[in-house]
Amino acid sequence: DAGVTQSPTHLIKTRGQQVTLRCSPKSGHDTVSWYQQALGQGPQFIFQYYEEEERQRGNFPDRFSGHQFPNYSSELNVNALLLGDSALYLCASSLAWKPIYEQYFGPGTRLTVT
Amino acid sequence: AQSVTQLDSQVPVFEEAPVELRCNYSSSVSVYLFWYVQYPNQGLQLLLKYLSGSTLVKGINGFEAEFNKSQTSFHLRKPSVHISDTAEYFCAVTPFEAVGSNYKLTFGKGTLLTVNP
Fold it and tell me: How far does Cα B76 stand from its chain's mean position?
């Protein structure tokens, strides 16, 4: 079992550009959550996807959007990148009917906006 | 809404010394509490959790934490640390009623534990 995988590992973008990050959940998991971890900060919840729909959302602007595919994998899209979007983006997967502490985190994608 | 304060951003200690990482939380409802560890270039791993019952909970790698409701604290301790314990540690909470519904976690800013030889 490969666990939660994320791609790419690192990414450098320019202000104003758009970026797509990808996440493959742990085998058997149906729910994917995304977190942003800025330097020196704890992870902040962006949103969660279940059954291909956004189930809950944190305090992030509409520039942040996502998608979940029928195979439960997920994408995080960020439009009109700002310097402040530079962060480690973590994906976590879980089973919808299981408690939140049973989610598994991926290693993250480090996004640098210049 | 919930918030988590980790009182120390960095804690340097020598190998085999005891360590305590402090965590305080604020919430208008009862919460469940967690400690996560993040090793360099890795994702978060659950160290331990408090759901109910005994206020002293034991986790992996010899860590333990004590829930103190009156002080709204959940400090993490280890009696003797190893070089391999060097990592970032995050305290997190989620509301009582939400734990079965896969609700989000609210994290603190983290404490970098550095164990020196």
Answer: 5
Asked if B56 contacts B45 with a C-beta cutoff of 8 angstroms, the reply is no
Q: What are the residues whose beta carbons fall under 8 Å from the beta carbon of A62, sequence distance 6 or more?
A: none
For A1-114, list the strands marked E by DSSP: 5-7, 10-13, 19-24, 31-37, 44-50, 53-57, 64-68, 74-78, 87-94, 104-105, 109-113
Order of all β-strands in the sheet with A19-24: A5-7, A19-24, A74-78, A64-68
Q: Tell me what pLDDT residue B101 has.
A: 53
Pick from A90, A100, A105: CB nearest B102: A100
Which residue does chain A place closest to B47, by CA atoms? Answer: A101
**Cβ under 8 Å to B: A residues 37-96:** 40-45, 48, 50, 56, 58, 90, 92, 94, 96
CA distance A29 to A45: 19
Q: Does pLDDT of A101 surpass 80? A: no
CB atoms within 10 A of CB A8: 12
Rounded alpha-carbon distances, angstroms, from residue A4 to A46, A51, A72, B89? 17, 18, 12, 20
pLDDT tens profile B10-49: 999 999 999 999 999 999 888 889 999 999 888 899 999 9
The whole-angstrom separation of Cα B107 and Cα B117 is: 30
Q: Which residues of B touch A48 (CB under 8 A)?
A: 102, 104
Give the Cβ contact number of residue B52 at 10 Å: 9
